[in-house]
Amino acid sequence: AVNAFKHFLPDASPVNLVTEKDAEGRVFVSTYPTMMGLIDETRDGQRRFGVGHFDLVVIDEAHRSVFQKYRAIFDYFDSLLVGLTATPKDEVDRNTYSLFDLEDGVPTDAYGLDEAVRDGFLVPPRAVSVPLKFQREGIRYDDLPEDDKDQWDALEWDEDGNVPNRVEAEAVNKWLFNKDTVDKVLEHLMTRGLAVAGGDRLGKTIVFAKNQAHAEFIAERFNANYPHFRGEFARVITFKTEYAQSLIDNFSVKDKAPHIALSVDMLDTGIDIPEVVNLVFFKLVRSKTKFWQMLGRGTRLCPDLFEPGKDKKFFYVFDYCQNLEYFSQNIPAIEGALGAPLGKRLFNARLELIGELDKALAESQRDALREQRAPPHGHPDSADEVRAQIAALLHREVAAMNLGNFIVRPRRRSVEKYAHPEAWTNLSPEALVELSHEVAGLPTELDPEGEEAKRFDLLVLNLQLAMLRSEPGFARLRDQVKELAGLLEEKSAIPTVRDQMALIQDVQTDAWWQDVTVPMLEGMRRRLRDLIKLIERQKRKPIYTDFEDEMGGEMPVELPGFSQGTDYTKFRAKAQASLRAHQDHVAIRKLRMNKALTAADLAELQRMLADNGVGAADDIRRAAEESHGLGLFVRSLVGLDRQAAKEALAGFLNGKMLGANQIEFVNLIVNHLTEHGVMEAAMLYESPFTDLTPRGPEELFTSAQVDELLAVIEQVRQSAIAA
Length: 723
Prior knowledge:
Domain Helicase C-terminal: 181-342
Domain Helicase ATP-binding: 1-106
Organism: Metallibacterium scheffleri
Strand content: 5-15%
Number of helices: 32
CATH topology of the largest domain: Rossmann fold
Protein name: Restriction endonuclease subunit R
InterPro entries: EcoEI_R_C_dom, Helicase/UvrB_N, Helicase_ATP-bd, Helicase_C-like, Helicase_Restrict-Modif_Enz, P-loop_NTPase
């Protein structure tokens, strides 16, 4: 990229480029503290980097932190930016396109995997799904043979002697490790995987394990089944592995052990080993970005791998956890959101609470009270005192921001404005937005606090907000606080805990929560926040079993997504950008408002796409066919208006006495329809719905109610299909 960029410079002066390699060998811009140390503006008024002018930043966006602290560095310098990435994003908080002033979803140029395969630069996958019963369905006691039932009854499941009647699929390989499951996978891999050395040795293989304990259990079972390899053939390579880099170096050598790398996240990205011919997905993946990064570990060319003149032509992907089916259906994936820093989330949550309290307090009463009283420092007795304390805390945080810091400097006007205490007396909605966008997350010089206390602060803030907004998530947050109080009670031998024991025990009772108020929650937070660090992070005791699992036959899976960056992908991105720019159009508004389309509306949508130069007729025809209608295609790009989605579910809610979890489940449907416009019934049995009810909607609703929900979803779908 640097050499190419030199051709566009007006003179022949060399380009000064500051980069750094991380632990996995990826090139990136120098780390944050080093950056700050290199900044020098003292000479001739120009921004300089070390001893040379900073002309160009080349970003390999493998580092997720490009959207957080590094963004401030790019904003500070006025250099040109060249971005190179395998995983462009267009999410609100992580938008690669906006970083480079591009139209969302339309990169300057793209080179897809399928193009690279056609051009002979990469090799394609052969994807094979292998069903495992326990991985997909969990383990039910009633389904086990009698011998396995005896083993189940003899297990020490917990300290209280409780014996479950089933173990969910999510627990398998998380804390329940079954010998037969792992043995069947290893046998399948060793017999079906691509082999080298004349077919006598399994080729280089990466096994993506669920966690450290899972990787170690796989290694243990491999060594038990293949003792003649003396524990060298398959090795655990994770961030916890001693001398991990030495093992990676050996794994990179064609004929050197280990030949199987058992990895937990460490080898998902950034590893370039051409000899890898087998990838084993032994864990669930729901991030599309991560899935394609993991798949990329096998795509490298490798001449003469099998014998002279016999090159690597493809690689195997063995999936035992239904990842291939998930991604082959083009289901919108969960990207594993990159959360904002904890300090920024706390700042914004406190701003939200101030906004909610301001709504609840009468203007005249609020102003009169503030004129009479300074912010209290003790436990608050009223919502107004809570508001005053929060405002005082945020004011101290802003006042402690160093205006000389180059991250703070571009926001100097806002920081100086809110460094005055009177600015916090009355905060308009516009002021709250300004504080959230301009000030939240900026570095402050207040003494740092413990992470555990800050996380507890955020939990209670979210609890207060849920209470003020009457949100169904209140019950879930309340139960988390009760659980933490229960764990604190076990630390009664510690004097500071014993001093708060009355409150700790009260918080665990339903009576304390019956008439809970914002000041009560605030007082509880202040008294318990510094004790939370005393709670030991408890882990579920691992259970080791040897139940007989069932493995189904292989199923080849086509991966339509193996064409990211193609012209059709660009067409979808352009179509989305164009349609969202014309949301006031009658036909698009009908789709967003869940109104029935006519044939004339469909014709108008087709004309609009064609006239705006979004794509060729073949692209539009393909979009309509794959989405089962042009209306459904357009709806999937523009989404459903949130109010329309709520109205669609209103009939289901009316007249029913639903619990908090049931209402939260309905809200999840509203969220999905708002974002994606339509919904398949099968999604009700996928995350995030199964995060709330692992066995599907039948666990929350009656059969008739489930049918009613499905009818609503189908009605929303039908409204996007022209009569």
